[in-house]
Amino acid sequence: MLLHLCTWPEVESYLDRSTGIILPIGSTEQHGPTGLIGTDAICAEAIAKGVGEATGALVGPTINVGMALHHTAFPGSISLRPSTLIRVIKDYITFLSKSGFSTFFFINGHGGNIATLKAAFSETYAHLADLNLPNSDRVRCRVANWYQCESVYRLAKQLYGAREGSHATPSEVALTQYIYPDSIKTAPLDANVAKGHPIYGAADFRRHYPDGRMGSDPSLATPDHGRQLYELAVKDLSRSYLEFLN
Amino acid sequence: MLLHLCTWPEVESYLDRSTGIILPIGSTEQHGPTGLIGTDAICAEAIAKGVGEATGALVGPTINVGMALHHTAFPGSISLRPSTLIRVIKDYITFLSKSGFSTFFFINGHGGNIATLKAAFSETYAHLADLNLPNSDRVRCRVANWYQCESVYRLAKQLYGAREGSHATPSEVALTQYIYPDSIKTAPLDANVAKGHPIYGAADFRRHYPDGRMGSDPSLATPDHGRQLYELAVKDLSRSYLEFLN
Amino acid sequence: MLLHLCTWPEVESYLDRSTGIILPIGSTEQHGPTGLIGTDAICAEAIAKGVGEATGALVGPTINVGMALHHTAFPGSISLRPSTLIRVIKDYITFLSKSGFSTFFFINGHGGNIATLKAAFSETYAHLADLNLPNSDRVRCRVANWYQCESVYRLAKQLYGAREGSHATPSEVALTQYIYPDSIKTAPLDANVAKGHPIYGAADFRRHYPDGRMGSDPSLATPDHGRQLYELAVKDLSRSYLEFLN
Amino acid sequence: MLLHLCTWPEVESYLDRSTGIILPIGSTEQHGPTGLIGTDAICAEAIAKGVGEATGALVGPTINVGMALHHTAFPGSISLRPSTLIRVIKDYITFLSKSGFSTFFFINGHGGNIATLKAAFSETYAHLADLNLPNSDRVRCRVANWYQCESVYRLAKQLYGAREGSHATPSEVALTQYIYPDSIKTAPLDANVAKGHPIYGAADFRRHYPDGRMGSDPSLATPDHGRQLYELAVKDLSRSYLEFLN
Amino acid sequence: MLLHLCTWPEVESYLDRSTGIILPIGSTEQHGPTGLIGTDAICAEAIAKGVGEATGALVGPTINVGMALHHTAFPGSISLRPSTLIRVIKDYITFLSKSGFSTFFFINGHGGNIATLKAAFSETYAHLADLNLPNSDRVRCRVANWYQCESVYRLAKQLYGAREGSHATPSEVALTQYIYPDSIKTAPLDANVAKGHPIYGAADFRRHYPDGRMGSDPSLATPDHGRQLYELAVKDLSRSYLEFLN
Amino acid sequence: MLLHLCTWPEVESYLDRSTGIILPIGSTEQHGPTGLIGTDAICAEAIAKGVGEATGALVGPTINVGMALHHTAFPGSISLRPSTLIRVIKDYITFLSKSGFSTFFFINGHGGNIATLKAAFSETYAHLADLNLPNSDRVRCRVANWYQCESVYRLAKQLYGAREGSHATPSEVALTQYIYPDSIKTAPLDANVAKGHPIYGAADFRRHYPDGRMGSDPSLATPDHGRQLYELAVKDLSRSYLEFLN
C-alpha cells in the first residue's frame, strides 16, 4: 500500500488499524564505473514496496537524495548536508505524527545515511516533546539497512566473498539489475581496486578511490542474484517491521 | 535519460555536451476524496521523463515532498517547511553545480512550491557567489509548472470549464489515471464544493475545504483526458526547456 | 494611525476594535541612474500611511530592506537573504500575534519580495500552530503590491506604454518625485535600454542590465504623475484592506 | 546624505571618497503610558540624519525593529530574536562590504540592542573572512548609543536627576516631542514607579514593571529639552564618527 | 601536553612537528542511582590525558556536554541537540584547521555522541571545502570510543559478564572510582534491572528504565578495576592515535 | 557540589532545596607569550568551584570554549561563533529548566563572552515561553565576571596599575599560576606592548597585537597574587550568587 497511491480517507482508515509507516531512503551518488547513480534509492524503494505488500504496511515516498557528501567529487552525485537531512527527517516525522503515525520504519539503502538518520531521530523526539503533541512520547523510529539483513549478508558473502567490497558492491548492483534489467551497464574494471581507506571528505575520497568503487567487483552481479537478494531482504525486513510495530 | 539509471562516467560524458538538468518536484498531500496523495509528484515525474526523452535531457530524481503545510490537517500529507525546502534546493543545486551543471529546469506539479522555489533560487545564487565556484555566475534556475502550460490550460478549460477548480482538479486526477490506471479511486463527491477562500494555515484550510477539494469536480477525469494532457505538457515543456537551455 | 506614534495603551484600545495591521515593506536597491535607492520603501511607506489614514488601520514600521539579492552588484544595494527575511517576518507576526493581532496586510513596493513573503507566511502559520497561541489558526497574511493595483497599472500603461518597463519604472520614480520633490535626479539615459532577460544572480543581472534599468524610461516621470498614482493606489488598497479585514 | 535618497552612481562616487556609512537602529517597543512605541527608532533616525548632515556621511535606512523580547508582553511591541537580528546585521554588512563599504557606525537608540549587535559584529567579521572579500579584514563596526554620549548624559542628569530612570525616560520622550510635536501624549502616571528589577523574560518584565516604565518620570519631558538633547547628541556623535572613520 | 596549559607559541612549535590533536568528548547525563552525572566526560578526559602523555599529542579541552537527549527526563542531565552539537564540532574543527591542525582524534565516552559526531564530520569536511582553506582536503577526523577498545571490552566481559549492561555500566563506574576515589556513591540497586528496550525519546526512556540503568550492575565496580581499564584504554588508544596520525 | 560528581538522585534532592546552579564559562584562546590558552576557563572553573563550596550551590560543567573569534589568528585558539554559542546556552538552560532549575549564575572568565551570553539569555527566555514549561517565566540568568568584582579590580589596580592591561593581564595569569604552579611560563616580553586598538576581526587583531597581549605585563604575576585574587573573587561572587538566588 503506497501512500502516493492512496487518498486521504484511505489513510484515515489505515490509521484506525495501524500507526506504522515505512519510509524508503536511498541516495543519489556514484556507484563506480558500472553501478547506477540511483542504486541506493532504487534498492530501498523496491524492497520497501515488497515489505509493504508482505505486511500490509503503508509505504511513504522514497527519499531519493541522502547524505552522500563524500561522493560529490564524482559528477552526478547529489547530497544533502547532514544539517539539511536532519531538518527533512524532522519535518517528515512531525507532520506524519500530527496525522497520527507513531511508528517510523526507515528502509535504508546507503550506509552514509545512518549516522545522520540517528541524529535526526534524536533531534525529532526532542522537537515533538517541545510541541506537546498527544502522541509525542510514543513516537519511535528505526533505520533498517537492507544490505545488513543477516540472510542478505550471508548470501552476498557466499556469492562474492571478499569481492563484495563496501561500495558499488556486486550485491547492490545485482539488485538494480533485477529491478531494471534494461539498465545493466558494463565497463572495463581495474582488477586492482582500491580498498581500506577510511572515508573523509569528497576530494580525499576520489583521490583514494579513483573509479568510485571501494574494494568491490560489481562484474560478478547478475539479475538472478538480485532476485534472490531481494527476496531475502523483503522476508527479513518484513519480520523486522512486524516486530518493531508490536 | 534518467540520472538514477546512469553511471557517473555517463554523466561525465553528458556534461561534455550539455550543462542542463531537469528536476521534477511534486508534493505529498491530500487531493480530495478521490485524488491520490502523490498526485503532484506523479504528474511532475511522468512529464519530466517525457521531456527528458523528447529532448535528450538528463532527468534527476523526483523531489516527492514539497511545501504543502496548508494540507497537513489531512492525514497522509507530508510537508517540508519553506526554510527546509530552501536548504534542500540549495544543496541540490550546489552539488550539481560542482559537477558542472549550470542550467536547472524544475518541472513542478504543485502551486504551493512556487514561492519557496523562487526564494530558494535567490538564496542559492548568492550562496554560489560566496563559494566562488568557476561557474557560479552562470547558474540559472527556472520553475515550469506543467498545469500552466498554455495548451494544457486551454484543454482543461475546454474539458471541465469552471469545474476544473484549483486543487484536486480533474486535469491532475486524469493525468494520474493515465499513469496509474489501476489506482483510479471513486467516492461520493458533494456537488456543493467549497471554493474561493484564500489559503492560510492548515487548520483554516481544512475548516474551509472540509473534503480537501478547492472548487473542483475530479469525477470528470478520465485516463484518456490524462493522456492528452500528458502529451500537451510534454510538448510544451520540451520546447520551454530547449529555449531555456540556449 | 502609525504604530510608531502610538503608546501601548493606545494599541491596547485599538485591539478592542480591530485585529488588523498594515505592514509596509520595500527594498534598498539600485533603481537605475536616476531612481532613488530607497524607491520601493518610500513608495510602500507613503501608500501605507495613506491607507492607514483612509481606513483607520494601524500602520507598522516600514521594512526598509527586503529581498534584493539580484541587485547587489550595484553599490548601495542591501539585501536580506530569503532565509533571513523569512525569520524576520516570522518574528514580526509571532510577536504581534501574541499582542492579539491576527490580520496582517503587507503593502509591498518590490516584486523581489513576493516569493519570500509568501514562503514566510507559510512558515509562520506552521510556527504559530506549534506554539498553540489562542489565535494561532485565525492568523491571516496577505501581500498587496501597490504597483499591481488595477487602476495604477492602467494609468502607468496609459502614461508610459511599453516605456514603463519592469524595474526603475517611470511610475515608481514618479511616486518618489511626488513624495520627495527635492530629490529628483537626472542623468543621461541610454535610449537602448536592456530588457527581457530573466533574473538570476547579481553578477548576471548587472551583466545584462548594465545601468540597472529593466526596459524602462524613468525620464518620463513627473511629480504630478506620482500624485495621481499615489491617490489611485491608496484608494484601491484601502478597499482591499477593508475587504481582507472582514 | 541619505542612502535612500541617492542613486547608485551617487553611491559609487561617494565610495571614491569614503568607505563609511551610518546605520540607525532603534526598536519598536512599549515606552510606558506616554512614550511612543517608535521612540528608539525615531531618536536614532533623527540623530543619524543630523550626524550625516554634519559630517557628509552617508546614512542608511533605519532598522526599526530590534531586540526587544522583554517588552513583548505589552501590545504593539515587536522584536527580532537575537539569532534573527544577527542574521540581519550580517546580511547588511556583507552586502555593503561587497559594495566597498568597510566602516560601519551604528547609531543606536535602544540598550537592548547592544549585546546582540556586538555578537553580530563578531559573527560578521568571521563570515567575511570565510568569503575572502578583498576588504574582509578591513571591516570595522561600532555601536554608538546616543543616550550615552557624555554631554547628553550630563544634561539628562541635570534636568531630571534620578527621575530619568532607565526606560521610557524623560530624555528620550523629550527627543520624540521635539521631532514629533504633534504626537505628545499625556496620561496619569503613578508616582510610585517600579525600578531596580533586572531584566529577564517578557512575562517577568511586565509583572515587575506593570505600566512599562523603569523608574522614570516622562512627564518632565519638554520639546525644548528634546532640542537641546538632539543638538548635543549630534555634536558628540559627529565627532565620534569622524574619529572612528580615521 | 594539554592545550589549556600551553601558550600559543608552544602550539606554534608543536604544529611544526605534528598536525594531530586529541579532543575528549563526554556527556553530562544520569548514570543510574550510583553513577556520576559526569561519568562520560570524566572517563574521556582522563584517558585522553593518558594518551596525550603516552604519545606526546596535544589534548584539547573536554567537550563536557554531548548528545544525551534521551536522558533528559532525569534531573541534572544536560544535552545539546544534534543540530547544536554539529555546529559546535564544525566550529572547533574549522578554527583549529585554520591554525594548521588537520588530524582530529576524538576520544569519546558516550555512545549517544557517535552518530552526531559522524554527521558533524561530514558536515565539516564539506564546510572546509567551501572555505578553500589550504589544508581543506587533508582534514581527517575519527571518533574512538574508549569502552569499545578490544582489551577494555574483553576485561569488562571477564569481570562483569552480562551484568556489564549497556548504560551506567560497572566498567565506566569503576573508571570514575579510580579517578575520583572520594566520590564513590552507593545506593540500593534493584536486582531486576530493566534491559533490552531500544532508545527513543526522553519520556520513553525513563518509562522503561526507571532508575536510569540499562541492564547493568554498577555495584560490581571497584577502583582497582578502574585502574586496569584505564591502563588498557590508554594503551589501546595510544596505538590507535599513532596509526591514525601516520 | 559539582554536578559531575553527583548522581541524579542527589540532584533531585538538591532541587528540593534550591533551584540555583552555577555554570562556569571560559574560553580557549591565546593569552600572549606566557599566558595559558586555557586561562579563562581555568579561572572561571576554579572560582566557580570555590563559590560552590562556600555557598552549597551546585556547579555545572565548565564551558571551555566560548566566543573568541578575534583571537583565532593565533594557533591553538578555538571559538564558537556567536550563533553557535547562543544555541549551546539555549540547550543548557532549556534542559536544566526541564529538570526544575530556574536560577542560572554564569561565572565568566572572558570579556568576549558577555555580549553573546546576554543575547543568548534573551533568546532563551523567549524560547522557554514558546515551550510553555511550568517554570518558564521564572527562569533568570546572570553573567558574573570574576575580574570585574570590585575587590578584585581594586587589588589588580594596586598590584599592577596601568600594566594590568586588558588581555593576558597579570591578574589572570597570576590566578592560573596559583592553580597550576607547575605550568608557569616565561618568555621575553616586549616592553613596548600594543594597546588601545578596538577589537574587530581576527586578522586585524593580530596585526595590531602581534604577540597577543593588550597593554599588559604578565611578568608581574606571582602565584601568591593569584591566591589573593582567587580568595577575593570567591568571596565577592559568593555574596552575589546568594543575593541573586533570593
What would your notes on this structure say?
6 copies of one chain form a homohexamer. Chain A is an alpha/beta fold and 246 residues long. Chain A has a 4-stranded parallel β-sheet with strand order 2-1-3-4, with helices on both faces. The first copy, chain A, has 8 helices and 4 strands. The interface between B and C is large, with 38 and 38 residues.
Topology record:
The structure is a homohexamer of 246-residue chains.
Chain A lengths: L7 H10 L2 E6 L13 H17 L2 E2 L22 H18 L3 E6 L5 H18 L8 E6 L4 H11 L9 H10 L22 H7 L14 H23 L1
Parallel strand pairs in A: 1-2, 1-3, 3-4
Helix pairs in contact in A: 2-6, 2-8, 3-4, 5-8, 6-8
Structure at a glance:
Chain A has eight helices and four strands; from the N terminus they run H-E-H-E-H-E-H-E-H-H-H-H. Chain A has 246 residues and is of the alpha/beta class.
Q: How is the largest sheet of chain A built, in terms of strand order?
A: 2-1-3-4
CATH architecture of chain A: 3-Layer(aba) Sandwich
Oligomer: homohexamer
The most extensive contact between chains is: A-B, 56 and 56 residues
Query: H/E element string of chain A?
Result: HEHEHEHEHHHH
How many helical elements of chain A? 8
> Which range best describes the helical content of chain A: under 10%, 10-25%, 25-40%, 40-55%, 55-70% or over 70%?
40-55%
Sum up the structure in keywords.
homohexamer; 246 residues; alpha/beta; Rossmann fold; four-stranded parallel beta sheet; 8 helices; 46% helix; globular
